[in-house]
Amino acid sequence: MHTDLSTSDITRIIEVAESIECSSEVDDIFIDVLSKYASEAIVVYHRRPSNGKSLYKRSVVSEKALRENEPGALRTLETGIMSQGLIANTQENHLVRQSTYPILNNDKVICVVIYERKVNEEIQSDFNVTIPSLQSEEIPSSLTAALGFNEKVINQLDDAILIFDKDGFVKLKNKKADIYYQRLGYLEDIQGLHYDNLSLDRTTFLQVMREESDFPNGQKGKETQMGDRFYKVKRLYVRERGLRLVVILQDMTEIKMKEAEIVSKSVVIREIHHRVKNNLQTVASLLRIQSRQVESPEAKKSLNDSVSRVLAIAATHELLSMEVEAQVNLLEVIHIIATNIQRCFVNCNNVQVEMKTNHPICLDSDRTVAIALIVNELMQNCYEHAFGDCMEGKIVVSLLLENGYVTLKVMDDGKGFSVKNTTRKSLGMSIVHSYVKDKLKGKFDIESSSNGTTARFTFKM
């Protein structure tokens, strides 16, 4: 009920439990499985010692095994590497030493078998042991150069550093290493523990030492997860007075949390853009209904113009709702605007629209909305004034990016008009001039002749 174990996995665990029942061990033996709800394990089996001298007064089957009490069990469940002799605190608040072994099914860790023994009375002295100072004569000169290794410096680092001897035991470490492993639930000083009891990235000491020939200068680092914490693990090899292994751990948890927060906010923002787009389309629909009910040609035209403007803004939000980044491809917006305008002028099927660009141009949403409205007005003017009764014609929208400046042209091959006699009093041209100047900080000009009209505006990218 509380795991992701399959029927096959459960059958395998039962087989393991039955084999333990047939053994004659003098330890308390447990089987723990990983909970699917949290970074914790659940006890599913307990066999008392064959001599009857159990460390437990009651059964702890179905109880939780927490990382802060049993780091070895959780670590083995997550990495698949055995943990040997780590200190743990039982559900009855007794200190024990646990040896934890992974059980696999189809190459997946499905449970751990835990052997527990009572610790010696002098174990308390292990918790009060004084961590030895970093003796410079014990540290190879190449390592000193590589890490700037002295006690004052290394203990100020934000990364954990552990140095293992040729047999894989921790020889030296800094204070941050103690903090990292305390967070992972280790109850004892990690000084002197073996690499296999401390590995976070599913590697054993034999494996990493074999890698030394392939990566003599160490690895760039790989990320791994332990419970709800993320780490980057990097290994260095130092050949001086024997081969030594240096492990550097960087806690990436805060960075990962920030990344997840950014992704979450990005999803929310995209959903907002999607809803804004839907709301704008609803407004456009209401304006269309109003347009069909009015009789005045001027009112009908004004309402239809408003529909085009609302849909031009909606086009930007539609693309923003589909993009992870807060940047919009300008050409895609113009394509949507052209499609919307063509739907408004259904009787102008002979007018062709062509798009040109020399480089993909992506802009922030504010400037894209301004450009969308400008292009909407210019293209609408082409349909309404350049081609008369919708005779054959062509509209070309050109986007050029040169030396950090964007030039956008809307050109038609219509009948043209007198630029000198035009006025900015119309709402459409007022929008164009205002948005180019105020929103884009750019320049706008228009040329027209009997061969057609070209409207052009330029702004800094």
Structure description:
The longest helix is centred in the middle third of the chain and has 41 residues, at 253-293. The chain has 3 domains: 7-122, GAF domain (Beta-Lactamase); 129-251, PAS domain (Beta-Lactamase, 2-Layer Sandwich); 256-460, Histidine kinase-like ATPase, C-terminal domain (Heat Shock Protein 90, 2-Layer Sandwich). Helices cover 38% and strands 28% of the residues. The two termini are 57 Å apart. The protein is elongated, with a radius of gyration of 36 Å. It has 461 residues and is α+β, with helices and mostly antiparallel strands. The protein contains 13 helices and 18 strands. The strands form 4 sheets. Strands 3-2-1-6-5-4 form a 6-stranded antiparallel sheet, with helices on both faces. The protein has helices spanning 7-21, 71-79, 123-127, 141-147, 151-154, 175-183, 195-198, 205-210, 253-293, 297-320, 330-344, 365-386, 427-439, and strands at residues 28-34, 40-47, 64-66, 83-89, 95-105, 108-118, 160-164, 170-173, 222-226, 229-239, 243-251, 327-329, 351-357, 362-364, 393-402, 405-412, 443-449, 452-460. α9 packs antiparallel against α10 (297-320) and α10 (297-320) runs antiparallel to α12.
Provide a compact summary of the structure.
It is built from 13 helices and 18 strands. It has helices at residues 7-21, 71-79, 123-127, 141-147, 151-154, 175-183, 195-198, 205-210, 253-293, 297-320, 330-344, 365-386, 427-439; strands spanning 28-34, 40-47, 64-66, 83-89, 95-105, 108-118, 160-164, 170-173, 222-226, 229-239, 243-251, 327-329, 351-357, 362-364, 393-402, 405-412, 443-449, 452-460.
